[in-house]
């Protein structure tokens, strides 16, 4: 019985909403036409396009990039990584694929440098951080006031392919630790890489060993859904073959009269799409053709919700009990916001004070410099004046000398002219005497 | 809450993302199987649809609903029939689960007997708007819970069918007031009720006048022009917009016409066939509501109207002076409480620098 009861609405005016009648099946007397609803839904989704994000975790050189190329029948541009990475880092690349009228935005995230370090304690941390960061981005978008979720490019990881090295014995401890850390955050699908190095009988033992180890360690891998009749059967049969032993190849070899993807050895040819040779076809079926939508849904409804719940509880939010006011989320928002604003103000004050202090210091420095300059200037001035005085003194002396010299010169000339005159007179006198003597 | 808030500018529903290089696929991968997966999941979960019929009593709202869904939606006598005019507006909701060809639909019909029947009809739209907002509120409360349900039950009104009485003149002030308020909150499809009292020419003239009225008062009915996504949508929706409001006749009784059993109304001068395009436009209404645009109605309700409501509601509790900005929930340790200054939010850098200049 679905009841609505009488509802309290914010603007308290009086109206009574009637109780719903029982939820019951109604028989139709003719064709109404809403059986086109699934088609309407699909049309909408097609025009929007789909997002799918795969995380590949595995050691360097185990064949992650090749497997992706083989799965999607295309060549994703990538250079093989070196073994010298100092730590694990994640490299994400997005591609747009289109098949008939379906557009798929595929993001492949690679763990570069996984398993290469000598100390692998922290190898899982960058992976977990990356996954959390994508959840966080979605959560932030969801918590925005003005948000656009239908427009949002979803980067949350929908499937994690864990590449197990084909040792033939059991899982490595690094694998166990990493998978344990990831199983509550992402859908893990374990696969055995480079399966062409294991013989068939060894493979069976290897698979059962791996599965029992996973179970005994409590690692929750992705369960293929068996609740819908259409897919239950195929999912059940495929689950038996977990982990899938795959071989990847982008090269084609002529087999019979067709070209097929395969790896050629001197002792034979391993065909990728041959179910007897490896489980590649099963992986493709499970990952893409049967369960892609379920993987996306599980990511959103289970892993993301878990993350969201933990994050919100961590931030201090609580669900209200029926007695307290509605919208305590908003009040906590308000409180946090005020806190944050207070912090902001404090920081601003600090910065302002620092700024003022710096200015003062600079001023003092400048004043000092100015004083120095003044002093220098005074010194220079004084020196200059002294020099000037010296020069003047010398000039006076020189003038005096010149005067003296002129005087002496004048005196000398006078004497000379006097002497000449007297000489001339003398000669005249002499001449006169002579003349007189003659007469 | 201001009932006259504006709808936001349209956003294209294409995913916005950084530039991704297109890749060529050589060979069949099987990506398109995801469509089938989507269908299977949707059919398993079932669909929900909530429709509200608004109009004065006697316009045939309840009958119309029964005709649309080809079943006796109201268990007993339809509300409003044979009952005294209620003093207050009472909204009546009924929920049914109908199934057709494996598709399960949870249908909720809300009727509004007593609307516009009083002598003084001032603010008679308040209960209706209150009910619609109440559904949004419910959804919002569910959505912000920490531990939320896997599938939040959707009781929001996806479509509101407004019945215009067939006066033949133009929209009345009551109609205009209500439509203005409703169009901002919910998808509204106006129809001319009891169209069998108008001849074809009268219908056309009435329709044109109503369209003119709607344009003059800036009332955007469904399908809204601003939400057309691409050229195909626009062409299809323009055709629909040209015929809105549909002139409809409802009936739940069958008569024999030309050897066929059809739904119709029998009068002395003939039988009006409900599903005959020459007689009335019921088929157009049904196709719009159910066969082609049902998902679109739900999408617009969820992506536009509900988001609008949410923005207003969240803004209200924050008393933000300016337009919506988002709240950075940076988990800061609780320091000494500082009296909150003027609302500054980190995003608007320009505002910050202005304030700094003033203070400094």
Query: Rough shape of chain B?
Result: globular
Low confidence ranges of chain B: 1-18, 319-360
The major sheet of chain A is characterized as: 6 strands, mixed
Straight-line N-to-C gap of chain A: 189 Å
- The end-to-end distance of chain B, rounded to whole angstroms, is 38 Å
Helix-strand sequence of chain B: HEHEEHEHEHHEEEEHHH
Task: Kindly report the spatial arrangement of strands forming the biggest sheet of chain B.
Answer: 2-3-1-4-5-6
Contiguous runs where pLDDT drops below 50 for at least 5 residues of chain A: 1-22, 321-327
Question: Hey, roughly how much beta strand do the residues of chain A contain?
Answer: 5-15%
Task: Please state the average pLDDT score of chain A.
Answer: 84
Counting DSSP H or I runs of 4 or more residues, the number of helices of chain A is: 9
The class by helix and strand makeup of chain B works out as alpha/beta
User: Biggest sheet of chain A, strands in spatial order?
Assistant: 4-5-3-6-7-8
Order of helices and strands of chain A: EEHEHEEHEHEHHEEEEHHH
Major sheet attributes of chain B? 6 strands, mixed
Structural class category of chain A: alpha/beta
User: C-alpha Rg of chain B, in Å?
Assistant: 24 Å
Subunit structure (chain B): Septins polymerize into heterooligomeric protein complexes that form filaments.
Pfam family, one (chain B): Septin
Organism (chain B): Panthera leo
Protein name (chain B): Septin
List the main descriptive attributes of the protein structure presented here.
heterodimer, A: 439 residues, alpha/beta, 6-stranded mixed beta sheet, 9 helices, 51% helix, elongated, disordered N terminus, B: 360 residues, 3-stranded antiparallel beta sheet, globular, disordered C terminus
Structure, explained:
The complex is a heterodimer of chains A (439) and B (360). Chain A has helices spanning 37-48, 64-71, 124-143, 173-182, 200-216, 229-239, 280-290, 292-315, 328-438, and strands spanning 16-17, 24-26, 50-57, 89-99, 102-112, 159-164, 188-192, 244-245, 252-255, 258-265, 268-271. Chain A has 439 residues and is an alpha/beta fold. In chain A, the strands form 2 sheets. Chain A has a 6-stranded mixed β-sheet with strand order 4-5-3-6-7-8, sandwiched between helices. In chain A, strands 9-10-11 form a 3-stranded antiparallel β-sheet, with no helix packed on it. In chain A, helix 7 packs across helix 8. Chain A starts with 15 loop residues before the first strand and ends with a helix. Chain B has 360 residues and is α/β, with parallel strands linked by helices. The model of chain B is unreliable at 1-18 and 319-360 (pLDDT under 50). Chain B is globular, with a radius of gyration of 24 Å. At the A-B interface, strand 1, strand 2, helix 1, strand 4 and strand 5 of A face helix 1, strand 2, strand 3, helix 3 and helix 7 of B. Strand 1 of chain A pairs parallel with strand 2 of chain B.
């Amino acid at each position: 019985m679905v009841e609505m009861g009488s509802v309290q609405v914010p603007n308290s005016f009086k109206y009574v909403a009637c109780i719903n009648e029982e939820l019951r099946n109604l028989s139709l007397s003719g064709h109404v036409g809403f059986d086109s609803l699934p088609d309407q839904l699909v049309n909408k989704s097609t025009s929007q396009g789909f997002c799918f994000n795969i995380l590949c975790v595995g050691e360097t050189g185990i064949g992650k990039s090749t497997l992706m190329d083989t799965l999607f029948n295309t060549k994703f541009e990538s250079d093989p990584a070196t073994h010298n990475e100092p730590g694990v880092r994640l490299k994400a690349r997005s591609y747009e694929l289109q098949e008939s009228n379906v557009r798929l935005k595929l993001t492949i995230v690679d763990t570069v440098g996984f398993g290469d370090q000598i100390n692998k304690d922290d190898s899982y941390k960058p992976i977990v951080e990356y996954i959390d960061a994508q959840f966080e981005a979605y959560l932030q978008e969801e918590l925005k006031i003005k948000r656009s979720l239908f427009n949002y490019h979803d980067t949350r990881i929908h499937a994690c392919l864990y590449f197990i090295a084909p040792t033939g014995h059991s899982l490595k401890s690094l694998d166990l630790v990493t998978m344990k850390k990831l199983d509550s955050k992402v859908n893990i699908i374990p696969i055995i890489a480079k399966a062409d190095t294991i013989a068939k009988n060894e493979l069976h033992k290897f698979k059962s060993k791996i599965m029992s180890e996973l179970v005994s360690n409590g690692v929750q891998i992705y369960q293929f859904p068996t609740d819908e009749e259409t897919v239950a059967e195929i999912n059940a049969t495929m689950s038996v073959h977990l982990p899938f032993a795959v071989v990847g190849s982008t090269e084609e070899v002529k087999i019979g009269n067709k070209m097929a993807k395969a790896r050629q050895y001197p002792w034979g040819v391993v065909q990728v799409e041959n179910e007897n040779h490896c489980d590649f076809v099963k992986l493709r079926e499970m990952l893409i053709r049967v369960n892609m939508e379920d993987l996306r849904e599980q990511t959103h409804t289970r892993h993301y919700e878990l993350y969201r719940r933990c994050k919100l509880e961590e931030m201090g939010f609580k669900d209200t009990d029926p007695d307290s006011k509605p919208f305590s989320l908003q009040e906590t928002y308000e409180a946090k916001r005020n806190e944050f604003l207070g912090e902001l103000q404090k920081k601003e004050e600090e910065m302002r004070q620092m700024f003022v202090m710096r200015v003062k210091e600079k001023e003092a420095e400048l004043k000092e410099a100015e004083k120095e300059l003044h002093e220098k200037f005074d010194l220079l001035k004084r020196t200059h004046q002294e020099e000037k005085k010296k020069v003047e003194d010398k000039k006076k002396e020189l003038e005096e000398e010149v005067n003296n010299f002129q005087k002496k010169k004048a005196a000398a000339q006078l004497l000379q002219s006097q002497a000449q005159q007297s000489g001339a007179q003398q000669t005249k006198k002499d001449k006169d005497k002579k003349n007189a003597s003659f007469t | 809450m201001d009932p006259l808030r504006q709808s936001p500018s349209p956003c294209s529903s294409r995913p916005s993302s950084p530039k991704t290089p297109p890749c060529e696929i050589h060979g069949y991968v099987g990506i398109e199987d995801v469509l089938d997966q989507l269908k299977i999941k949707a059919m398993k979960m079932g669909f929900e649809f909530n429709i509200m019929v608004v109009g004065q009593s006697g316009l045939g709202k309840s009958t119309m609903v029964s005709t649309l869904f080809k079943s006796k939606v109201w268990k007993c006598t339809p509300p409003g029939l044979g009952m005294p005019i209620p003093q207050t507006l009472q909204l009546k909701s009924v929920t049914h689960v109908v199934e057709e060809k494996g598709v399960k639909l949870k249908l909720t019909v809300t009727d509004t007997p007593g609307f516009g029947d009083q002598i003084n009809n001032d603010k008679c739209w308040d209960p209706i708007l209150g009910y619609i907002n109440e559904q949004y509120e419910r959804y919002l409360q569910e959505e912000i819970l920490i531990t939320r349900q896997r599938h939040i039950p959707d009781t929001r009104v996806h479509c509101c069918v407004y019945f215009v009485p067939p006066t033949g003149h133009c929209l009345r002030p009551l109609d205009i007031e209500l439509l203005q308020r409703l169009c901002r909150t919910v998808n509204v499809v106006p129809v001319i009720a009891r169209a069998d009292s108008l001849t074809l020419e009268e219908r056309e003239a009435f329709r044109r006048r109503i369209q003119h009225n709607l344009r003059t008062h800036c009332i955007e009915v469904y399908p809204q022009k601003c939400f057309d996504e691409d050229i195909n949508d626009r062409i299809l929706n323009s055709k629909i917009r040209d015929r809105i409001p549909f002139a409809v006749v409802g009936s739940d009784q069958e008569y024999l016409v030309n050897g066929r059993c059809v739904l119709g109304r029998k009068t002395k001068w003939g039988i009006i066939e409900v599903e005959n395009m020459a007689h009335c436009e019921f088929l157009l209404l049904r196709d719009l509501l159910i066969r082609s645009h049902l998902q679109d109605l739900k999408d617009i309700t969820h992506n536009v109207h509900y988001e609008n409501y949410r923005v207003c509601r969240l803004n209200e509790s924050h008393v933000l002076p300016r337009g919506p900005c988002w709240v950075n929930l940076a988990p800061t340790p609780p320091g000494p409480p500082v009296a909150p200054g003027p609302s500054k939010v980190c995003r608007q850098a320009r505002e910050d620098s202005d304030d700094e200049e003033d203070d400094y």
